[in-house]
Specification:
With 778 residues, the chain is an alpha/beta fold. Helix 14 (372-393) crosses helix 20 (457-477).
């Protein structure tokens, strides 16, 4: 390896962790260990370490400190012995620490401490003392900093060489590195994008580094194999209707009992004091029990406060009104007459919009809808109309744009493009305060979002025109605020000295945010200000599965948003699905390249720990192709009839293709089936009654069914074909993968993919068939 690459904010984080610095230096001085990362990725909590396949560079970053735009401030440190750390291994540790300090200072535009004897040279290079200590002070390091070319990001970057005695050679070496700085930046950016495609390296190779990191990344301070304590409830007993009903009605005290259905991991998190020491992130796939654990954790804090006779205020944030109502009912069940909540110890359950309305003193008539999900659906429809109008009014721009012309002539591309436009307006325009600054958005050399970075000037002009039409319709026409307006207005209020003065009384002791992946960056920035500020850390618990963020909005890491030193807990137990369904779900999500999200954990080892399912209702996932005389709606109806004959009581029909919605809806409505149309996320469904639910991926989160029938996943339909724009094709593919993962993880026993006559399965389903994870039934 020639270079060690690190982001500026990660360098700042790393400087306060000497044991991790020690282990990184030992690792870099070990060529054999370094080669083990070529084309592989090391992960622990939010920390990532990955190397290029040609072994020329190794990159180190913390996902909590990423900016979310795809453009990071990177620094590079030479490692090889010719002009790098390995040339003087006896002082490598001191030199590496000094390099981290210098790149962190300069990438933030700060001066170098005068005690380090900073010198500047005519060729634009600099030198300073190589490190502390009598030996290191006899040497110097050289560095150069440059702006990345305007066509890329406009960010500054930095390269450091040394240690050496010879100032002339140091300056020449640094100047030589400066000539290749753009290429280095592109190479490390490729690592960041492609890291999720890389296989995970053997943890044993980096055991010492893992041990050093564990203190800062795991909630209990001890490193453990992510899958070592996997516990899967996959026995016949776990899937009986009696046990399901019993678990739904269990009280808080019953869940705390030693023989309750809690997994070892859930019980350890519940009984820990992690939330009193640092922010906590609970990450788990669908069906792992995140929401239940969040509620038990909240009640545990209240129960402790009650026993100590102290006051306590807890805020539980749900994404939409239906989910908030569902959570409130579950809290009542968990208390079961034994009241833990009282006048001194409260839990406020609400959406972020409801909280914003209270703080801002607004009426419901001032906003699109008090329900976040309904508001986003309204935003989607308004943007769809604005884009259609822009296509008509900006014909020349559309004609000359490969991206826009492809979308205009392909109706199936419109829906995913509107989702990207929603994210762009939220993060790049409103998030940067550019509502009234078209020129800055269009001409910005800085990459404001991942989409912004791939648009040319005319395409950015088109996007801003869409925003202006949307704002004219919503803000000026309807005279209402959308969810971003509420979040940004609320953030402005909470950042004032007035709130700082009132915060101790009006803020909360603990904040719990459920389904955190559904909140965009503007909304996430509000979270740390909701607490009362009495603790040294932000006492917040976030439950999330980034793979379920079907909008795939780009967002900065939580540390960049004010929630620093967060530790992770992974729920590696799935209490919902069979082994075959779990294996298929993770086969699908492995194909995500993390293009528009921060990161989500790799749970692919879970299925290997599960035992084969023996339950009589279980059948392998399958693709079924309809007969020549059958429409898809009628074919879906026959599959549902077959499932009901097999004693499958609750069936979810999830339509991934809008073009098939009306056909399926018509076929199901003309029957005696107990049909329910689900058009809102988080709606409480009866758990013991037979039902057939027709819905779309956007609304199915938080639900579970005995069987799932996923409609429309055909070659060329989902995802739609994009012939002339790789970036758009990739973005749409990522959205499709997340929607498919979400649908698969709703199923307990059976999973069916019905296709129209003559259709072929989508590419990912075809790959799953070839991998032996799906049966193909003609």
């Amino acid at each position: 390896m020639k270079y060690f690459a690190i982001t500026q904010q990660t360098a700042d984080w790393l400087l306060s962790k000497p044991t991790v610095v020690d282990e990184l230096v030992k690792f870099m001085l070990n060529p054999t260990a370094m080669r083990c990362l070529a084309g592989y990725e090391f992960t622990q909590g939010p920390v990532r370490l990955s190397g290029t396949e040609d072994s020329s560079m190794i990159a180190f970053w913390n996902i909590d400190y990423l900016g979310g735009t795809g453009a990071e401030a990177w620094g590079f440190i030479r490692i090889d012995s010719s002009v790098g750390l390995s040339g003087k291994p006896e002082i490598a540790r001191e030199v590496f620490e000094r390099c981290l300090y210098v790149l962190n200072q300069r990438l933030r535009g700060y001066r170098i401490d005068g005690a380090f004897i900073h010198r500047s040279y005519a060729n634009g290079t600099h030198t300073c003392l190589a490190g502390r200590g009598s030996t290191a002070r006899q040497y110097s390091v050289g560095f150069i900093e440059r702006n990345i070319d305007a066509a890329s990001t406009g960010n500054r970057t930095f390269v450091c060489v040394g240690p050496m005695h010879d100032f002339s050679k140091l300056s020449e070496s640094a100047e030589h590195e400066g000539a290749a700085i753009n290429a280095l930046y592109r190479e490390v950016s490729d690592i960041l994008i492609s890291a999720r495609r890389n296989p995970i390296t053997d943890a044993g190779v980096l055991q010492d580094l893992s041990d050093a990191l564990s203190v800062y990344t795991w909630a209990d301070g001890n490193y453990r194999d992510e899958y070592a304590d996997v516990e899967i409830s996959a026995s016949d007993r776990a899937f009986t209707g009696v046990d399901l009903v019993k678990s739904i009605g269990m009280s808080y005290e019953q869940w705390l009992e030693a023989n309750s259905p809690l997994s070892n991991n859930q019980r350890r998190i519940l009984n820990s004091i992690a939330i009193d020491s640092h922010p906590l992130r609970i990450v788990g796939p669908g069906g792992s029990g995140k929401t239940l654990l969040m509620q038990l954790l909240a009640l545990k804090r209240l129960d402790i406060a009650k026993k100590r006779d102290i006051s306590l205020r807890v805020l539980y944030i749900a994404h939409n009104s239906a989910m908030a109502e569902k959570v409130a009912r579950r809290f009542d069940v968990l208390e079961n007459g034994n009241k833990i909540r009282d006048a001194k110890r409260t839990v406020d359950i609400m959406t972020l919009t409801e909280y914003g309305l209270q703080q801002l003193g607004l009426e419901f008539s001032s906003i699109i809808d008090p329900d976040a999900e309904a508001a986003k659906e309204f935003q989607f429809n308004e943007l769809d109309s604005a884009i259609s109008q822009a296509f008509s009014d900006m014909e020349n721009v559309v004609r000359n744009s490969t991206l826009l012309s492809e979308i205009q002539k392909t109706p199936n591309l419109m829906r995913p493009f509107v989702k990207l436009a929603m994210a762009e307006i939220s993060s790049a325009i409103k998030g940067h305060g550019l509502e009234n600054d078209k020129r800055r958005y269009v001409e910005s050399e800085q990459q404001l979002s991942r989409l912004h970075g791939i648009l040319n000037a005319d395409e950015r002009l088109f996007m801003f025109n869409v925003f202006e039409r949307y704002r004219a319709a919503v803000f000026e026409g309807y005279q209402v605020l959308d969810t971003d307006d509420i979040a940004l207005s609320l953030l402005g209020r909470l950042r004032t000295p007035i709130w700082e003065l009132k915060r101790k009384d009006l803020g909360y002791d603990y904040v719990f945010v459920d389904e955190a992946q559904l909140f965009n960056e503007n909304e996430r920035r509000v979270f740390p200000f909701l607490t009362n500020g009495k603790a040294q850390h932000v006492p917040i618990v976030l439950a999330l599965d980034e793979a379920q963020d079907i909008y795939g909005q780009s967002s900065a890491g939580f540390a960049s948003l004010g929630i620093v030193d967060m530790t992770s807990e992974n729920l590696s137990s799935i209490h919902r699905s069979t082994r075959d369904i779990v294996k298929l779900a993770f086969f699908v999500i492995q194909r995500s390249t993390d293009l528009f999200g921060s990161d989500f954990p790799d749970f692919t080892g879970i299925a290997d720990k599960m035992e084969d399912e023996k339950h009589p209702l279980v059948s392998r996932p399958r693709v079924e192709i309809g007969s020549a005389e059958s429409k898809l709606g009628k074919f879906v109806l026959r599959r549902i009839r077959d499932l009901r004959k097999a004693n499958i009581r609750q069936i979810g029909v999830i339509c991934h293709a809008d073009q098939y919605w009306d056909d399926v809806l018509t076929a199901l409505r003309g029957t005696d089936l107990p049909l329910q149309i689900l058009e809102e996320r988080g709606v409480r469904l009866p758990s013991t009654q037979p039902l057939v639910v027709l819905t779309k991926p956007a609304y199915v989160g938080g639900q579970e069914f005995d069987a799932v029938v996923a409609v429309g996943l055909e070659q060329g339909v989902v995802p739609p074909r994009v012939s002339n724009n790789d970036a758009l094709a990739t973005a749409i593919e990522q959205q499709t993968l997340r929607e498919l993962y979400l649908s698969i993880t709703r199923a307990r026993f059976r999973l069916v993919f019905p296709l129209t006559t003559g259709a072929s399965p989508s590419a990912v389903l075809q790959d799953a068939i070839e991998a032996g994870l799906l049966d193909n039934v003609a």
